Amino acid sequence: MGENIDKGRLVEVFNGSRWEAELVKGLLESADIEATVKDGLMSSIVPYVSPTVSVLVNNDQYEPAMEIIRSRDNV
Q1: Which end of the chain has fewer CB atoms within 10 angstroms, the N or the C?
Q2: CB 58: neighbour CB atoms within 10 A?
Q3: Taking the model in full, what pTM does it have?
Q4: Nearest 5 degrees, angle CA 36-CA 42-CA 44?
Q5: Res 43 pLDDT > 90
């Protein structure tokens, strides 16, 4: 997994804490949607700020990914 991600066409589908992002990434990958996690940079600039992490998918997988995330939020 991961080799099919086109880094030039990534879109954000989730932004939150590291553990939430890893959970969302796992949900997406279990549905055969390639996902990657991108760390926020604020923690290196301001150490006491809790960093946010983004989950990114290929642009063409945006809608299916959002459906999975929305269904997770409705549980």
Answers
A1: C
A2: 19
A3: 0.75
A4: 100
A5: no
